[in-house]
Amino acid sequence: APIGLGPELLAAAVAVDPDAVAVIDGARSLTYRELDETSNRLARLLIAGGVGPERAVGVAMDRCAELVVAWWAVLKAGGVYVPVDRTPPVERIATVLDSVAATCVLTRDTDQIGGAGSRPVLRADADLSGYGAEPITDAERSAPLTVDNTAYVIFTSGSTGEPKGVINTHRMLTANQESLRACWPFLEAEPPVVVDWLPWSHTFGANHNFNLVLRNGGTLYVDRGRPVPGLLETTLANLAE
Questions:
Q1: How far is residue 53 CA from its own chain's centroid?
Q2: What is d(CA 189, CA 192) in angstroms, rounded to the nearest whole number?
Q3: Which of 78, 143, 157, 171 has minimal Cβ neighbours within 10 Å of its Cβ?
Q4: In terms of C-beta density within 10 A (0-12 exposed, 13-18 middle, 19 or more buried), how is residue 60 classed?
Q5: Average pLDDT, integer, range 104-133
Q6: Is the confidence at residue 166, as pLDDT, over 80?
Q7: Would you say 217 and 13 are in contact if contact means Cβ atoms under 8 Å apart?
Q8: The pTM is what?
Q9: How many CB atoms lie under 10 A from the CB of residue 223?
Q10: What is d(CA 236, CA 80) in angstroms, rounded to the nearest whole number?
């Protein structure tokens, strides 16, 4: 069946092999079953916080296993995933969050983030045992989720002014992956194994690499190296491993 909603990309891989390893982040790993169930729990936390279709969530986390969970949780809740770089001035972070009218901010390693203002700051690594791991239904969301709902807003760097948001709908994300699968039929027989250092706030890193691996039941290795002096060695070691 055609895939049209972001969460269906993950569901397709889970259905094939739920016990395959989806993400490896240092010593931590998540199977597809674990990724699916944990993101369902987090999605319910977001829904309880008012997240739903066309309601944005600022996601302020470094690349890690929790960020993979957060991506799917926001999409499953029906919300709009908005990556937030914590390094710019507080005013610029506030501008990004204000421009999308973010409902809340999702983070991992702090209870507060500069620029969040009065918005609730939720922990992606909170105790989620009180939320069910079963699939999210439309009845739980504030409105039905459609292919034309916004899934993701990528912000430009703001090098020539204020950062500008670029809207990606569910239709856009899933059509991108289905076109890649049509071009590369070997993906169905040979799930991709990718060592990736690209930012997950960019089209290439997120829409292409991140979704490509997880749509096709592959394994995503979180690489903390980069092709710059002092970090290239980390990437080479990760590739060898």
A1: 16
A2: 9
A3: 157
A4: buried
A5: 88
A6: yes
A7: yes
A8: 0.94
A9: 19
A10: 35
